[in-house]
Each structure stands twice: as C-alpha cells, then as structure tokens.
Amino acid sequence: MTTLAEPRHAQPIERGLFSRAVDRLGGGLVQVFMILVALFWLIPTLGLLVVSLRGETDNNSSGWWTLFTKPAQLTFDNYSNLLASGFGSSFWNTVLITVPATLLVIGIAAMAAYAFAWIEFPGRDAVFLVVIALLVVPVQIALIPIAKLYGFLGIFGSILGVVLFHVAFGLPFAIFLLRNFFVGIPRELLEAARMDGAPEWRIFATVVFPLAKPAIASLGIFQFLWVWNDLLVALVFADTENQPMTKALQSQMRQFGTNVDILAPGAFLSLIIPLVLFFAFQRYFVQGMLAGSVK
Fold first, then answer.
1. What range does the record give for the signal peptide (predicted)?
2. Which of 141, 166, 174, 189 could form a Cys-Cys staple with 109, CB 3.0–4.6 A?
C-alpha cells in the first residue's frame, strides 16, 4: 500500500514544478520580448543622435549606421554651429513657454477639480458639463478670434500670449483628469480634517494634493509634452524673437532640401528633454493613468 501511494503524491509535485518552470520561462520570454521592443523603439532616436554627430558630407554620402565602421566621423561641429546660429535663445524661449504653461495648468486645474469633486455649490454639475464640452473644441477654431483679441490687448507675438493659449486649452482635460482622481479619495479623510477644524484650502493642500501626486505627475507629463512639441500655436502667436525650438527648426527647412547639419542636432535636443522627463516619471505616469479606473 505504501509503494502504491507514493506515485500519487509525486504527481502533484511534478505538475507543480512543471507549472512553475513554464511560468518562469514564459515570464522570461515576455521580458526578452519587451526589451527587444524597447530597443527597436529607440533605433530612430539612436539614428538621430548619430546623424547629429556626423558632418553634412558624411550624412549625404552614406547612412548613419556606417558610423560603427568609421567612428572617426564623430564631430560636435554641428552642435557648435547650432548654438552659433541663435538656437540657444529658441531653447530658452521653449522653456519659458513650457514651464509656466505646465505649472499654471496643474495649479488651476487642481483647485478647480477639488471644487468640482468635494465642494457643494449651485450649478456645479452644469459647470462641469461645460468644462467637459470644451474638450471637443478644436484648437484651430480659436486661432483667428484669439489672434484678434491678442492684437487688441497688445500681446500678439509675445511669450505671454503663447502661454495663455496653452493654459486655456489645457485646462479642460486637466480638470477632467484630476476631478476623476479626487472623487476616488475616501470621504472619511476629508470629514476627519473638517472635524479637526481645517479649512478647505488646508484640506486641499495637506490631504488631497499629496495623495494626487500620481495623477498630477501624469498631467504634468501630458501638458509638458504637448506644449514642448507644439508647432501650430507657435507659428501663429510667436514672432521671430520669441519663437520656440519647433518654429526655429521649421524655419531651417529649405525649398529643395533640408539643412541636416542644423536640423539633426536641433531635433535631438528638442527630443531628449521630454524623453528624459518621461523615463524619470514613468512610474507616476502609469499610476496616474490607472487612477480612478478601478473602484
């Protein structure tokens, strides 16, 4: 009887070991696949970097992958010529546009979203529906009216005008995103703070805002990328003195060709900042995107 019972006990153990081996192998294959996808996704970025470090003659005569057999082609002359052409001022104009537009949208949207989520006032739902309706308004439909308004106010062509336009069109989505996150915060936390005598601004600053870091990080990444990579608004509202990098790069396009020695390093500089920002805050980005989706 003892000899017959041993195989029956051994079968589940063998199946358990087999299942664990399959799970580990499957997980390893998934990781290898994701690494390959990430490397494949980074190939254009690597190619752009290599092109920006090669001379115009080398880029016209051969592909960027030939650098691996001819490393002597590397040079920083393109970046020196880029800075000498005044591209540095366009870089700082981009920073002066993107940073205020991102911070203002986060600050205003967070306060508005808190009001829509936890403060009772007449017409709250109707006003929120109006905010949601603004999400479907295309940017192009407001270019001419806003341009006339800016001309009347005397801010057409300035950095301030570009910032205000981005803030206005970034607020509806920002309020919608943060409001959906705020309503998922347990009501007991806010009620406990109110019972302790905390005013609404203190509840927002010390309870709600710290809990909303993932959603705020996601919103910040969205807004930063949208403003940093914008070309349409810059073409309409920014003059040559206040133009960001996207407009400066667009002005380097020739009628019958491209100024590769200027466009490649400029495009890489405009690409690397958002890329670093995304990788630095990707954990908060994923948490913010999942926030409010599961109750």
1. none
2. 174
Shared-domain flag, residues 91 and 61: no
Q: Which tens digits make up the pLDDT trace of 271-291?
A: 888 888 877 777 766 665 555
Kindly state whether residues 211 and 286 are assigned to the same domain: yes
Of 230, 238, 212, 210, which is closest to residue 274 (Cα–Cα)?
Answer: 230
Identify whether 3 is part of a domain: no
Q: Any alpha helices (H) in 229-281, and if so which ranges?
A: 232-237, 245-250, 260-280
Structural domains of the chain, count: 2
Three-state SS for 157? strand
Same domain, 63 and 199: no
CATH number at residue 245: 1.10.3720.10
User: Does residue 22 share a domain with residue 120?
Assistant: no
Closest CA to 174 of 116, 127, 106, 226: 106
CA 277 to chain centre: 8
Helix, strand or coil, per DSSP, at residue 238: strand
Half-sphere exposure of 244 (CA within 13 A, CB side): 26
Shared-domain flag, residues 140 and 262: yes
Same domain? 96 vs 176 = yes
- Same structural domain for residues 53 and 90? no
CA 47 remoteness from chain centre? 22
Q: How far apart are CA 64 and CA 61, in angstroms?
A: 10
In sequence order, which ranges of 154-259 are alpha helices (DSSP H)? 159-182, 187-195, 200-203, 209-211, 213-228, 232-237, 245-250
* Same-domain pairing of 245 and 277: yes
Q: What is the pLDDT of residues 223-278, one digit of tens each?
A: 999 999 999 999 999 988 899 998 888 887 764 456 777 888 888 888 888 888 87
**pLDDT tens-place string over residues 146-183:** 999 999 999 999 999 999 999 999 999 999 989 988 88
Look up the domain containing 32 and give its range: 17-68
For residue 137, the Cα-to-chain-centroid distance in whole angstroms is 21
